[in-house]
Design a protein that fits this description.
This protein is α+β, with helices and mostly antiparallel strands. It has helices spanning 2-5, 76-79, 102-105, 109-134, 139-156, 170-177, 181-193, 209-217, and strands spanning 20-25, 30-32, 40-46, 49-54, 60-66, 71-72, 85-88, 92-98, 163-165, 197-200, 203-206. It has two domains: 2-123, Jelly Rolls, CATH 2.60.120; 136-217, Winged helix-like DNA-binding domain superfamily/Winged helix DNA-binding domain (Arc Repressor Mutant, subunit A, Orthogonal Bundle), CATH 1.10.10.10. Helix 4 runs antiparallel to helix 5, helix 5 (139-156) crosses helix 8 (209-217) and helix 6 (170-177) crosses helix 7 (181-193). The longest helix is centred in the middle third of the chain and has 26 residues, at 109-134.
Length: 219
């Protein structure tokens, strides 16, 4: 997004960069909250984020993770508010597309929307794949599919697919997958023992993608 959208019409008189600004985000800092009025779309330049939504007991449930290259908050263009909250998992940085400055930039909102829709298409396909894995009852399947989805996303961003950095906690992972934290830790330990992955603190290396795929698709 930073490269695609950061320009105004030549005759608009708007200085270069007025649409987008780079913004550092501290670990734990919130980008926006549930039901907050929509005013910007974010693109992750570095670091990672988690999206959260309160459940019926008003406990925050993790509903997604964002990695470098991902867009955050674009859904708000439709209903004019954010339907979830987002926090940084680590020291991060984002490009912020200021929607309020589109008119003075000389760029039409429709052109920006088309660009965003194109960028979101690939993410939607990946999210559907992960969502499909979450309806499986087997914890091994869910975790294997989750690891593979992170590897695919990392590869698409040119970051490599065999070595992953897991900034999210085991609790966040468990919340997202609908599992107990202890179950996530136990399954990861077993995956490592079976030679599928290697864990070093927050670093995860895929040792056998083929075996992980077999686990993810087993019935």
């Amino acid at each position: 997004m930073c490269q695609v959208l950061d320009y105004a019409a030549p005759d608009s008189g708007v200085p270069s960069g007025i649409l987008l600004r780079r913004q550092p985000v501290s670990k734990g800092e919130r980008l926006f909250g549930v039901d907050q009025p929509f005013d910007a779309v974010y693109a992750v330049k570095s670091g990672s984020f988690k999206a959260m939504l309160p459940d019926l007991n008003r406990r925050e449930r993790v509903i997604g993770f964002y990695l470098p290259g991902d867009l955050i908050g674009a859904e708000g263009m439709a209903n004019r508010y954010y339907s979830y909250s987002v926090r940084a998992l680590e020291a991060s940085s984002v490009c912020v597309l200021d929607i309020g400055r589109l008119e003075q930039s000389g760029r039409s909102p429709e052109a920006v929307q088309r660009a965003l829709i194109e960028m979101l298409g690939q993410e939607v396909a990946l999210n559907h794949s992960v969502t499909a894995s979450l309806i499986r009852q087997n914890a091994d399947q869910r975790l294997a599919a989750f690891i593979l989805s992170l590897a695919i996303r990392s590869s698409l961003r040119g970051l490599g697919s065999n070595r992953l950095y897991l900034a999210m906690s085991r609790s966040d992972m468990a919340s997202y997958l609908g599992l107990a934290r202890e179950t996530v830790s136990r399954v990861l330990t077993r995956f490592q023992k079976d030679g599928l992955i290697r864990l070093r603190k927050q670093s995860l290396m895929l040792l056998s993608r083929e075996k992980l795929e077999q686990v993810a698709t087993s019935r």
